[in-house]
Structures are given as C-alpha cells and as structure tokens.
Amino acid sequence: MSSSRLESFLATIYVDADARARFLADPRGEATRAGLAAPEIESVVNIDRVGLEMFAHSLNHKKAQKAHGHQTN
Amino acid sequence: MNADRFGIGWRPRLAAGILSHLDRLDVVEVIADDYFHAARDQRRALRTLAAQVPITLHGVSLGMASTVPVEAKRLGQMVRLCEEVKPTFWSEHLAFVRGGGIEIGHLAAPPRTEATIEGALANLARAKRIVGVAPQVENVATLIEPPGSDRDEAAWLSAIIRNSESDLLLDLHNLHANALNFGFDAPEFIARIPIERVATIHLAGGKWIGPQGTQRLLDDHLHDVPDPVYELLAAVAARAPQALTVILERDGNFPSIASLLAQVDRAREAVARGRADSRALLPAREEAA
C-alpha cells in the first residue's frame, strides 16, 4: 500500500486548512473522491487526528520561521 | 582508533561565534538549500568557510522517501554546490516534502510501506548516480503517525539502509521525540537498526505542545539538548566502533555560543563514556566468543 496519490492526498490535507476541514468532516468520502485505493482509504479514515492537527499547526509555524530567515530542518 | 568529529550547524546568526571558535569544532554542517540560489558573494563566503573547516552539506527539500522520483534539477543544484565546496559528505532526510504539486514546506514522514522503501531506494540510487556520491540519510521526527504504514520505523529505516549505499545520519532527538510520542523504546530501536552503518549523529532539542493528555514532543531545534538524548548518544557510541560525526543543530532562540559549545563538549563526553563502556565490555565479549 501507498502510492503517489496517497502522498498527494496527505500533502493536501497537511497544508490546506479547507481541504483538511472537509476531510475531517467526511474522511471516507474525501478519500474516495481523491481516488485512493481501498486500503489507503481505510488508513486515512483511521488517521491520527491529534497528530494531523499538530503537524498542520507546526507547518504554519515553520512557514513563519522561513519567512524570517533560512531553511530549517 | 576512532576519529570522532564534533561540530555545529551553520546558521547566519551563529557565524561570528562559530568563526571565532573553530579550534573547538571539527566540522560545520551547512544547509545546502540555503545556497542553491545564493548570490555570488554568499557562495564565495561559503567557499571561504570550507577552506577553514571541513563542512558537510545537509539537504532539506529533495524528498528522498517518496514514490515520486526526485527531480534531476534539484539534484543538479546539489551537484554544483558539492563541486564548489567539496563537502566531507552530503545528506538528506528520509521524508516526502511535496505531492501532487503541493509543497508541504517541511519534512513529512511517508507511509512506512514497501512502496516507499522502493521509492527511497530508487531515489537514493538516482542521487548517487547524478551527484557521484550517495547521501547519508536521516530519520525524521513526526507529530503524526504516518497514515498507511504497515511496519514500524525501525523496520522501515533498516530496510532502506541495508539495501542502499547510504549510511545513516541518526538524529537522536528525532528518535527521542518519536519514541515518546508513539510509545516505543528508543534504546531498543538503536539495537534493531544496522548500527555499523551509522555515520553521523544529530543532536537538538524541542518542546511539548498540545493540550494536557494529548501532548507531543515537537522537535523544534529551539531548545537545548535534553539529558536523555546524551544518554542515547552514549548508547550509540558504546555499540558503534566506527568513527562518528556528531552535529549540534540549533535553528533559533539562540543562546550564547558558550552555551552551544558546552553542549558540543557534553556530546564529546557522552561519546567518550560510550566508548569506555564498550571497552569495558570487550573482555566479556572475547570470553563469550
């Protein structure tokens, strides 16, 4: 399991707050509409929601850091 | 005899402190991506730095652990920088950083599957072919359990290291954070990975975030290295007879250079302690053999 389509889907819900909200409201529907394979759909339906919100929040913070200087890792 | 090396990550705010204490540093790690589009004078300054101290180049945006091939254009930028500053080695993260044209803006842990192992192996082979030298690869911290994973991090990471020419850049704070956040044992993780392939160690700090009860440790590089990370460093040094390069990373909330150098010195002590523990165990090992 795992495909470039799953990576694209994850990238979208990590960085796009609206897409993330739609996903959290209807995970199976959004994953199905994104064309994920059945096992991938199950994996995102059971996503670590606490981690998703924390990671998305940390990305916003990283963007602010980068706006003030150099790349970080 | 070991030739362990200890150094610090180059950041513009630390430049004066680093340059005035090169006698206490064996190596300096530079974020490669900061120089891909740098002005001529900045690249000249980097060449000057490289003439004074061994440097390593650390990439953050190639996206090695992906089912999508790394773009040749990005690898070309690394080639040009390597040719210009002749680093001791170069490194990248086992992360994906974009998907479907969307830039994530940071390192994301990929689904830990056979597909991303194969993708990473293909990308690492491609990187070696284009750059000429295989990169060392770093384990990443993650706040989210990577969706779609069918194995744990130690198994996933070990498969990539064992099947590639890339040695491991083991970030011990990333390991510490992942172990605390997802409930696994960091020393056991160290026992499971191919320790003989660990070439470099990263040290950093972080902070707890989130509401009580669901807190997780964020690897933010804005805090001092915590005690358990030095213990992990000693544990690695006890198991790994090969020379190690140990780099302290700090991205902001900068303390004095004296404080950073003290952390580098503490890393030296941890490695020395681990080496001594290893030697103490040798007679017993020989008897057992």
Features:
heterodimer; A: 73 residues; mainly alpha; 75% helix; 0% strand; B: 289 residues; alpha/beta; TIM Barrel; eight-stranded parallel beta barrel; two-stranded antiparallel ribbon; 12 strands; globular
Short description:
The complex is a heterodimer of chains A (73) and B (289). Chain A is an all-alpha fold and 73 residues long. Chain A contains five helices and no strands.
Structure overview:
Chain A is mostly helical. Chain A has helices at residues 4-15, 17-25, 27-33, 38-45, 49-67. Chain A has one domain (4-67). The radius of gyration of chain A is 14 Å and the shape is elongated. In chain B, 43% of the residues lie in helices and 18% in strands. In chain B, strands 1-2-3-4-7-8-9-12 form an eight-stranded parallel barrel. Chain B has a two-stranded antiparallel sheet with strand order 5-6. Chain B has a two-stranded antiparallel ribbon with strand order 10-11. In chain B, helix 7 runs parallel beside helix 8 (227-239). The mean pLDDT of chain B is 95.
The share of residues in helices of chain A is over 70%
CATH superfamily of chain B: Divalent-metal-dependent TIM barrel enzymes
Largest beta sheet: strand ordering of chain B? 1-2-3-4-7-8-9-12
CATH architecture of chain B: Alpha-Beta Barrel
- Supply the CATH class of chain B: Alpha Beta
Estimate the mean pLDDT confidence of chain B.
95
Number of helices of chain A: 5
Quote the beta fraction of chain A. under 5%
Let me know the largest β-sheet of chain A.
none
Q: Main beta sheet of chain B: strand number and arrangement?
A: 8 strands, parallel, barrel
Mean pLDDT of chain A: 90
- Determine the number of helices of chain B (DSSP H or I, runs of at least 4 residues): 9
- Percent in helix of chain B: 40-55%
The oligomeric state of the chains shown is heterodimer
Count of the separate structural domains of chain A: 1
The separation of the N and C termini of chain B measures 22 Å
